[in-house]
Amino acid sequence: xxxxxxxxxxxxxxxxxxxxxxxxxxxxxxxxxxxxxxxxxxxxxxxxxxxxxxxxxxxxxxxxxxxxxxxxxxxxxxxxxxxxxxxxxxxxxxxxxxxxxxxxxxxxxxxxxxxxxxxxxxxxxxxxxxxxxxxxxxxxxxxxxxxxxxxxxxxxxxxxxxxxxxxxxxxxxxxxxxxxxxxxxxxxxxxxxxxxxxxxxxxxxxxxxxxxxxxxxxxxxxxxxxxxxxxxxxxxxxxxxxxxxxxxxxxxxxxxxxxxxxxxxxxxxxxxxxxxxxxxxxxxxxxxxxxxxxxxxxxxxxxxxxxxxxxxxxxxxxxxxxxxxxxxxxxxxxxxxxxx
Amino acid sequence: xxxxxxxxxxxxxxxxxxxxxxxxxxxxxxxxxxxxxxxxxxxxxxxxxxxxxxxxxxxxxxxxxxxxxxxxxxxxxxxxxxxxxxxxxxxxxxxxxxxxxxxxxxxxxxxxxxxxxxxxxxxxxxxxxxxxxxxxxxxxxxxxxxxxxxxxxxxxxxxxxxxxxxxxxxxxxxxxxxxxxxxxxxxxxxxxxxxxxxxxxxxxxxxxxxxxxxxxxxxxxxxxxxxxxxxxxxxxxxxxxxxxxxxxxxxxxxxxxxxxxxxxxxxxxxxxxxxxxxxxxxxxxx
Lengths: 340, 286
Hints:
The complex is a heterodimer.
Chain A (H helix, E strand, L loop, with lengths): L1 H21 L3 H4 L3 H26 L7 H17 L5 H23 L4 H21 L9 E2 L17 H23 L1 H11 L1 H6 L4 H27 L1 E2 L1 H4 L2 H14 L6 H20 L6 H16 L4 H20 L8
Antiparallel strand pairs in A: 1-2
Helix pairs in contact in A: 3-7, 3-8, 3-10, 3-12, 3-13, 4-5, 4-10, 5-10, 7-8, 7-10, 8-10, 12-13, 13-14
Chain B lengths: L1 H31 L6 H19 L3 H22 L9 H23 L15 E4 L2 E4 H23 L1 H11 L1 H6 L4 H22 L10 H16 L4 H21 L5 H15 L8
Antiparallel strand pairs in B: 1-2
Helix pairs in contact in B: 1-5, 1-8, 1-9, 1-10, 2-3, 2-4, 2-8, 2-9, 3-8, 5-6, 5-8, 6-8, 9-10, 9-11, 10-11
């Protein structure tokens, strides 16, 4: 049994690495810039969902507040370029640090709340930030920040001709976020997080400082989220509050992760790989009809997917694997260890 | 002082409607532990029902209330039968995300059918009428909405606490398996609870077109405020939701008047945070 579990993990891991090895070739394959756009969004939203997965999946604290950190990252980059006319890099750094600091400050009282009270508190925080930023002139208010035309290239993190530059940037972002989470999975801290998720009292009785674990996980998650937000701003060349710091954006973090399989390494990628093409291609095919036909279909598909596969896409793999093992065992004629 | 009382009363009239919307959510949440993210969209659909009845058939919102309530009862029951039923016993987020999909669907369906324009009924029985009470001026449409809301919340509370059906609901909320062993058809209870929760918001939405414009986004804010009210009052507590609704309505009106209109929701959400930081289980929760 031990051996089997190891094999499965190795197989998933191998497939994952093989996929990653192919990813740098994507710009060559996807000459069409719309497909390129979809691939970039998949990687970006997979990274965002993975950042959320740290606190929401592994640590079990369902936060609907991540668009706040995403927005802070986006505004950090946006204000450096638009307001101060410099390269986005210092803004990105400040945004990331600020997001982590804000995460600690607002999470500390919120972690005293349990279950639904915590979830609703994060809703409330998003709305407070959303409305404050809308009327705050220093950050651009309701008009938002529109990027000026500056020289393209890595120093300004901006490209106009092709999306290839963005692609390699988002690939690095993706590898960074997934690498961090992969590292966490095997690290002591990752075990602490899962212990807190499974039972806070039990974890505390074993000497885990659950508040510190949750705060650290939230800070890490927020910092990575802000990094994604900065990329999002650079990619869209525009920052405004409804786009980056809204409840709808917050829901995407949760939706993608849960759709893929929360608390698993590949879940966020699976979720993004399903949901983002769905969103983008329904928009491309039916968005032109006007009147939100694309979103009608999108909404129906979400219902269908969530109801049919509540354990996430990863659940499909587990089901297939179970069936394969069963068949193998039946072939061998020993189904003794097959009992549930 | 007079202005203060006037603003406070306006806020409380609104607050009673919030309480009714929240009571529906509270019932579903308390009994089934399901977060109905499409609750605000149910309200929006109810407003459209009432609007079109008024516009096409000249039915006054005061009468459409019944039709809207019944319509959303059916919509709620269908939502349970087609979606929620499959999410019971699964992690709590599953139902939330499914209803989030439903919310997107309903919002865009209404936008597609009825355009994103603001629609409002004019010349209803109550429109533009006011009621003078000393120096206070009460707008009659809001007053009627508040009274209807208060009556319905009272009825729901009585239903839950004094009838056999209500006891069955409470038993199901406490322990589904035990309730089933006692001969309660919990599947049917869930269906009815979702329907009644929908009917609450349907009645609230039915009366509103006489003073509030209908558009596809109108429900989102009401849905959020309903979440806040339910959590602030304490989950599953209908008196708590009523209290929280009144509090939220008052704070919203006062902050909007004395600080700035853009701050009214910041004040409301800030109030929620302040309340739960002091009482982590809400005002009447335990």
